[in-house]
Amino acid sequence: xxxxxxxxxxxxxxxxxxxxxxxxxxxxxxxxxxxxxxxxxxxxxxxxxxxxxxxxxxxxxxxxxxxxxxxxxxxxxxxxxxxxxxxxxxxxxxxxxxxxxxxxxxxxxxxxxxxxxxxxxxxxxxxxxxxxxxxxxxxxxxxxxxxxxxxxxxxxxxxxxxxxxxxxxxxxxxxxxxxxxxxxxxxxxxxxxxxxxxxxxxxxxxxxxxxxxxxxxxxxxxxxxxxxxxxxxxxxxxxxxxxxxxxxxxxxxxxx
Length: 256
Ligand code: XBP
Ligand code: MG
What we know:
There is one protein chain. This protein folds into two domains: about 5-15 and about 100-255, HAD superfamily/HAD-like (Rossmann fold), CATH 3.40.50; about 20-95, Orthogonal Bundle (DNA polymerase, domain 1), CATH 1.10.150.240. About 45% of the residues lie in helices and about 10% in strands. The protein contains eleven helices and six strands. Strands 3-2-1-4-5-6 form a six-stranded parallel beta sheet. Helix 7 links the parallel strand 2 (about 115-120) and strand 3 (about 145-150). Helix 1 packs across helix 5 (about 75-95) and helix 5 runs parallel beside helix 7. Bound molecules: xylulose-1,5-bisphosphate and magnesium ion. Magnesium ion binds near residues 9, 11, 12 and 13. Xylulose-1,5-bisphosphate (XBP) binds near residues 10, 157, 183 and 186.
């Protein structure tokens, strides 16, 4: 079975973005005169709801307010989210959200190995564009055969919709592709789509349950920051590259 494509999650996988998202939300609340402030523990809980707009709705649903006020706040979700996205993209474009370790190396390796790159994320396209262009330059989007983002999926992760959309656009079957994720919601979505799934937990998801993952590594590893020996022993290398992913995928597919 030849590995044909990688399907990469964005938030927490390409970059540890959620602290910037949290600050962007709080800045939007101030800009719009809302007396909300999401602390890290509150945000960690809210992160279990994927999608910024859905997260806002979950927060509003938790507020002890009269129905009329709840409806009025709900009507403002799109405006709040637009302000938050402006704040977030400003932070990303200012270089405040670096890629995670080994991401740039793996993408280069995929290009050399003629393995297509794609994205399956809950976040908005504007956020992806800002992160990719800041990280890889103006033509960064051209490196990806398919980008599946945000509202393109009827149901957000943990539903498989966005992964199924990307597989259709790739015209590839799940058993020829590998997903890379950071969260339990993302893992559930990728597995429900039938994908071999590698998880590199992020700061915000490190205590989640990844028992359904095919492989869990602390990061992708790089020359500067090689994987620790226990993780390296799982893949026979101090860095996860296309060769290692291909080997892992075939070891599983040959047993099926
Ligand atoms: C993580 C999410 C997103 C971000 C916020 O997406 O759930 O909602 O937290 O981005 P990923 P938006 O699938 O990449 O891990 O406010 O644009 O939704
Ligand atoms: Mg993620």
